[in-house]
Design goal:
The complex is a heterodimer of chains A (533) and B (149). Chain A is of the alpha/beta class. Chain A has a domain of 349 residues: FAD/NAD(P)-binding domain (3-Layer(bba) Sandwich), CATH 3.50.50.60. Chain A contains eleven helices and 16 strands. In chain A, helix 1 packs parallel to helix 11. Chain B has 149 residues and is mostly helical. Chain B has one domain. Helices cover 54% and strands 0% of the residues of chain B. Chain B contains seven helices and no strands. In chain B, helix 2 packs across helix 5, helix 3 crosses helix 4 and helix 3 packs across helix 5. Chain B is elongated and about 70 Å long. The chains are: A alpha/beta (533), B mainly alpha (149). Chains A and B meet through helix 5, strand 4, helix 8 and helix 9 of A and helix 5 and helix 7 of B.
Chain lengths: 533, 149
């Protein structure tokens, strides 16, 4: 079956797909977005039920391999110490994330020039500044402007309360003389643009029943749809087709009934992030593009960057926020910039964790061997539960071509489409960075008076940030897309997600991903008359 | 029986025994053990996608014990439990997690912990704003963002 052609076809309705759809809507072009997932129903989110914690181990797991919703596809990540986590629905992984909202720093765009490693980005921070600001307004960000060690932001809502955990962390950091600051988050601290303010459900990561946490299904999409964008759900794209001129002609997808469809389009924009995007390109093989679409550089799927998380946590005598607050509220950039005396190049941000709920605490502590079986179980559990503080070093992962997404020769999704296979190792530089982060984390926890110290090194199910697998650059031999997101090889094909990152920085990337998507949309709008030249 | 949709009677008996070994009843804290009938019923009713792994764990436990766990003397039972937990892998971890996730949502247990018997939504929680003067030393120290050329 052939559908009517559209001007712009966007694949993926998550963080970047929603932003680019909304921005392009003012062109009045016919814009269609296809997503393999559907609209989520907040009334069914875990925090509405008494089994809210148990669901995180099953149908609300962050791992698609555990969760196995019909909208998910399997990922072979056996050959990686860090497992891929994501969410597939309208809103994508913004439905399931911690809402921690740092930006990449200006120096992150110039790592080759500054530190002699990896590559500089073809754009700089200043090019993205207006789009960071626009995105913060659209997503609704809370925070405290004026952090001396972070890029200047202007959050439209005040920062989260310190709660019980914040002062314990702040005092420890002050004792050590180290930087800390309330983190920017996409948790609404006041009523904002139709969203209700945060009431501290605490279980933010697997979706917010209150709607206080920004996800693009409740931020960008309502605006984009009102502006005329069509969003077609439960449509899984199998491949992008090209015509005799080497231009993208449209996509083949399976609709909600599993029926194969062809959707013609003048422009195709991929917004499937660092695993889904290379998977789609590598599955789009033709005579003209035998190694996958947009892959003349051979770099599609390569240079996967995760951000290895080194986490250390302990238990203090004072009560902490436990499950009664958003999981993160503070950050530190004390060790963000390169200091070669530390034995590694580049650096890491620190996220502080407020605590955990009782089931999570019991399960995690039993696994770590600090919560015994038997008679002493109750006494020890009462010492641990509601007393956890966590420190996580989010380490900058530098690009290495052997870290990559390929197609699994055997594994397929429910539509028979080859699944992605991950090959990834933690580099020696990252290893040293993680060790440094763990050592500093131990000092922080000791300053806070914590005992029963445990580590997750790396956090195994910590592959939230999927970056670098279709990098941007000016040299077609060393990059997949140009400095405004257009494929070097296919001039009506654009990529707007985390796969175009050149380097990863040491912070959560979603703010920067969306700013990039808005920047690319703006570049497209400025070039509409000669977009394919 | 590892792929069974339901646990056998013998598996259910061993589940009850091992659950009590993980979390025994306590007069001091006024809580039931994880072998309590209501908590066991919750486990069996909500096993769902965990059934196969839990069954596999119980099969492993039965192999180690050689007979119903409850019939072993305390020392032998402890030795079996230790072996099970250290070598049982994902299946053992799943069994323990199932026991704990059902135990720590039981009303009597939550009450003993001083926790409210409700879902987080819609009531939520109230957080103290905290002492923001703690940030004064950070502001006073200042700092500069690394410059990019």
């Amino acid at each position: 079956m052939k559908n009517d052609p559209v001007d712009v076809l966007i694949i993926g309705a998550g963080a970047s797909g929603a932003a680019v759809a909304w921005s392009l809507a003012d062109t009045k072009m016919h814009i269609l977005c296809l997503d393999q997932g559907g609209w989520m129903n907040p009334a069914e989110y875990p925090s509405t039920g008494r089994d809210w914690e148990a669901k995180f181990y099953g149908e609300w797991s962050s791992s698609p391999n555990v969760r196995k919703r019909p909208e998910d596809y399997p990922i072979n990540d056996d050959n990686s110490p860090i497992k891929v986590v994501n969410f597939n629905a309208v809103g994508g992984s913004t439905v399931m994330y911690t809402a921690h909202w740092p930006r990449l720093h200006p120096s992150d765009f110039k790592v080759k020039t500054l530190d002699g490693v990896a590559d500089d980005w073809p754009i700089d921070y200043d090019a993205l500044t207006p789009f960071f600001e626009e995105n913060d307004r659209m997503m609704g960000v809370s925070g405290l402007s004026g952090d001396p060690l972070s890029p200047l932001s202007h959050p439209p809502m005040p920062q989260q309360p310190l709660g019980l955990s914040g002062p314990l962390i702040g005092k420890a950091m002050n004792q050590l003389g180290w930087h800390w600051w309330p983190s920017d988050t996409t948790v609404a601290t006041t009523d904002y643009e139709g969203r209700a303010r945060c009431i501290n459900l605490g279980h933010c990561t697997p979706a917010c029943a209150q709607g206080a946490k920004a996800s693009t299904d409740i931020t960008y999409w309502p605006h984009a749809i009102r502006a005329g964008v069509e969003l077609r759900t439960h449509c899984r794209v199998r491949e992008i087709l090209t015509n005799e001129d080497g231009m993208a002609s449209g996509v083949v997808y399976y609709d909600k009934d599993g029926v194969e469809q062809f959707q013609p389009a003048e422009v195709v924009i991929i917004a499937c992030n660092g695993v889904g995007t290379p998977r789609l390109l590598l599955n789009s093989v033709s005579g003209k593009f035998p190694n996958g679409l947009a892959n003349s550089s051979g770099l599609v799927g390569k240079n996967l960057m995760f951000h290895p998380y080194a986490q250390i946590y302990g238990f203090v005598k004072e009560p902490t926020d436990s499950n009664r607050a958003p999981p993160t509220c503070l950050w530190s950039k004390e060790f963000y910039d390169t200091d070669l005396s530390r034995g590694f190049v580049r650096g890491y941000g620190i996220q502080f964790g407020r605590g955990a709920g009782p089931v999570f605490e019991a399960v995690a502590s039993e696994q770590k061997g600090i919560l015994p079986w038997g008679r002493d179980h109750h006494r020890v559990f009462r010492k641990l539960n509601g007393h956890r503080l966590a420190v996580s070093a989010i380490c900058e992962d530098l690009p290495e071509e052997h870290n990559r997404v390929a197609l699994d020769p055997v594994l397929k999704d429910s539509h028979g489409i080859p699944a992605p296979k991950i090959d990834y190792t933690i580099s020696a530089n990252s290893r040293k960075m993680m060790d440094h982060g763990l050592a500093r984390g131990r000092e922080i926890l000791e300053a806070a008076g914590a005992t029963d110290i445990c580590i997750n090194d790396p956090i195994p199910w910590g592959g939230w940030h999927l970056l670098g697998t279709a990098r941007m650059g000016t040299d077609p031999a060393r990059s997949v897309v140009n400095e405004w997101g257009r494929s070097h090889d296919v001039k009506n094909l654009f990529i707007v997600d985390g796969s175009i990152f050149v380097t990863s920085g040491g912070v959560n990337p979603t703010s920067t991903i969306q700013a990039l998507a808005l920047y690319i949309a703006d570049q497209m709008k400025q070039r509409l008359a000669n977009l394919f030249d | 029986m590892s792929d069974a949709k339901q646990l056998t009677a013998a598996q259910r008996a061993d589940l009850r025994t091992v659950a009590a070994m993980i979390v025994p009843a306590s007069d001091e804290y006024k809580v039931p053990g994880a072998d309590d009938a209501e908590i066991q019923a919750d486990m069996l009713a909500t096993l769902g996608r965990d059934t196969a792994l839990v069954a596999r764990a119980l099969d492993h436990l039965a192999d180690l014990a050689g007979k119903p766990l409850a019939e072993l003397d305390d020392a032998r039972r402890d030795a079996v439990a230790q072996e099970f937990r250290s070598r049982g892998g994902a299946a053992a971890a799943t069994l323990v997690r199932v026991v704990l996730q059902c135990y720590y949502r039981d009303d009597r247990v939550l009450r003993s912990l001083g926790l409210e018997l409700r879902a987080p939504f819609p009531k939520g929680h109230v957080l103290p704003d905290g002492d923001w003067s703690l940030l004064d030393p950070v502001k006073a120290r200042g700092g500069t963002l690394r410059r990019a050329p």
